[in-house]
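Note to self: keep these together.
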Amino acid sequence: QVQLVESGGGLVQPGGSLRLSCAASGNIYSINYMGWHRQAPGKQRELVATISSGGSTNYAGSAKGRFTISRDNAKNTVHLQMNSLKAEDTAVYYCNAGVVAHTGKYLGVWGQGTLVTVSS
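Structure:
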């Protein structure tokens, strides 16, 4: 079993910054990709950013230039630095990862989500 636990969400004013973190634990042999998705009220979940084990990154258009994804492979953690936040960034942010367990099984794992609210 593998768990992802997010932290760092909260209330921030427009133009402000937040840093989200996600830690993976459990039956982990290796982690392939790690990433962040978000779901705003009344909308579908959408990709924000992903990062491969080698550090290659991919961003949604709305995140480019404002958000930075990074990971620490030794600690099985991924971070999302969010700058110049806008009201439309308000959403529940979910961490996800592609994990190879010690059993050899490949797992797609999601965290429970952390709420980011951008409001004055």
